[in-house]
Amino acid sequence: MKGWRITIGIGVALIALSGAQLAIWGTGEEGLRVLIRSSARSSVLLFALAFSASALRSLWRSEPSRWLLANRRYLGVSYAFSHAIHLAALVGLGRVSQEFVDSIDAVTVIGGGLVYVFTLAMALTSSDAAVRALGRPRWRALHWAGSWYIWIVFAQSYLPRAVVQPAYGIAAVLVLAVPAMRSAAWFRRRARQPQTA
Ligand code: HEM
Question: How crowded is residue 51: how many other Cβ atoms within 10 Å of its Cβ?
């Protein structure tokens, strides 16, 4: 599978999964919290795949890494769709739980909201036409800043959870693997550059 078919396939699978979860746990607080957690997990997985594709390709020349790099745009837009489910479930939770609404502070709204602003901007500029219209340096700056900001929010969500609940270790390892791979790829590229001095 390649191209936009990936995004459509993942989108359909996520809608089916969300529907099944709401059918099992109900559309009240319990079901919506299940959906919030599962959409955060599908989001971090898709985001990590898209954000580490280039590093993985440099470190591990193989067919899977070639596929990942060629299709990272479609995985990135799939992440945006998955994260839209997180947002939709949060809105739903806000309608059924006043306690949840009262627990939201300005830091959460601004810090989390900025993730959605970046996610939308990055999804809308995921095309060759957008790269041409923005110019490559501006496009790269937007996607670089947005990706790192989104990574920070995932890290501050999952790493403290992993400290108290070992089951979150998998998510924590995934989150930490991204900068580890990107740094390793950066050092490798630097080492391969011809010395000019
Ligand atoms: C915009 C405001 C946001 C609010 C109010 C919010 C609220 C919540 C709530 C209440 C939960 C816990 C659900 C439960 O365990 O019952 C949760 C989980 C989580 N959220 Fe959000 N969220 C927001 C945005 C974000 C963003 C932008 C990200 C990441 C970029 C994110 C990542 C996560 C993660 C990683 C979890 C943990 C999921 C798990 O337990 O596996 N959230 N969020």
Answer: 23
